[in-house]
Structure formats: structure tokens, C-alpha cells
Write the C-alpha cells for this entry.
Amino acid sequence: MEESLCRIKNLAHASVASLEMKMQQYDRWSENFESDVSNLDYRAPKICVDHLYRVIESKGLQFTEETEIIDLAAGTGLVGKFLRDKQFIGTIDAQDGSSGMLDVAKTKNIYSNFYECILKPDAILPLPVNHYDVAILSGALSDSQVHPTCLKDILRHIEVGGIFVFSTRSNRNNLDFKKKLEIEIEKLEHDGCWEKLLVNDVKEFERATSPEEVIQAADKQQITEEYPFISGSVYCYRKLN
Ligand SMILES: C[S@@+](CC[C@H](N)C(=O)[O-])C[C@H]1O[C@@H](n2cnc3c(N)ncnc32)[C@H](O)[C@@H]1O
């Protein structure tokens, strides 16, 4: 556990000078990523997939063989795995800036197309435009990873009426980022780019890397666990134009 925590703190949560350096960190982490995040009870990929299905089922819709999903910042492919666990039979493509992480995703035989590129503000991504029925961005919206203004760029690749599901953590160190993210989300709503389908705060999102990361409840309940859970949020939006 200590070794996993150390890697998570030094690799996933640490600030770096550039996104390229962050991608190199993930290249180095790719072999240990899944066992490390499993020690942390990392739930973002499953939470995103479960919320996608909640939205689809609440609308009486069903995915088919024709449905195409893009898994953004796909990492080692955990989102793809949970989609297949739900018997998703359509196409899943994967995008990530780390070749090491994508190499692990390739071994799962889940994805059709792989796009190795970095999401950064105003980047032109080599993905088909107005194309995907669904985009999922799990566990990558935080400082030194995917910038909030990338949401707008990603929308270019979703077809009108398509669904975008993404998540962020609500631990102490991510609160400023989350505020900026929610300003961007509201701006896109105000500009008529998308409409809200479902937003949910999830209490047990993943375990904290230190008790200080937990935002205590108003009653200042004592944190007794060594690795308490932090909360997180999941957002589901529908592209309008
Ligand atoms: C914590 S992992 C999450 C992986 C996967 N989505 C999941 O939930 O298991 C973050 C992933 O996002 C990728 N990533 C982070 N920032 C990125 C960016 N700006 N552009 C492309 N990939 C990025 C990393 O390479 C890494 O694979």
C-alpha cells in the first residue's frame, strides 16, 4: 500500500512543468497503474460508466452495434473494460497522451482505434468531427492534466444529441480546479452548447492519499480511518449544437 500511495502522490497528483512531462510520468507508471489504483479503491471509470447507463436507461434508450464511444484520457482501458462488463457491443476508441498507458490498453482487445495525442486548450485533435455518440473522460480532469477549456474542444468530436460523461475529485487539493471546471461547465450551458442530464456527488469516490485531503463534514466528524474516502463528482451532458 505504501509503495502504491507513494507512486500516486508523486505521479498522478503531483504538479509538473508541462503536459509532456506528465505524459512521461504516466509512461513510467503504466505497468503498475492498475494495481496501484486498485489499492486506492479508484472508482471513477466504473462510476462514469454506471452514470452513462443510468442516463440511457432513464430515457428508455439502448446502445446498439452501431454506437460509437470515445474513451478520452483512456489510460490502461478501465472504462472500456467496464463498458464491456455492461455488455456494450458497439465500437470503443481510445485517446491518451501516454503511449505507455495506451500500450496496456491495447492488450485488452477492447478498443478499435487508438489516438495518441495530448488534450490541451485549442488543440486540434486527430479525431473524427461530429462523430461519437458518447464521450467519456474519467479521472483526468485535474491540475496538470486536462484543462477545463478542453471540454469545448472535445464537444467538436461528439455528434449533436450525443452524451459527454466526465468526472473530477473533490479532495482539498482539487477544489480550486473543480471551481474553474464548474465555471466552464456553466459557460457551455449558458452558450447553448449542451444541456445537463445528470450531475451527481459521489461520497466514496476513491481513497485519500492522506487524511488532510478529506473535506470534513460540518459536524467535524473525526477521521478515524487511515485512508478515508474522498468524494467526487460525475457530470453527464448532452451536446446541443
Ligand atoms: C488517472 S489516469 C485515468 C485513466 C482512465 N481514464 C481511468 O479512469 O482509468 C489519467 C490518464 O489521463 C491521461 N492524460 C492526462 N492528462 C492528459 C492530457 N492533457 N491529454 C491526454 N491524456 C492525458 C494520462 O496519460 C493517463 O493515462
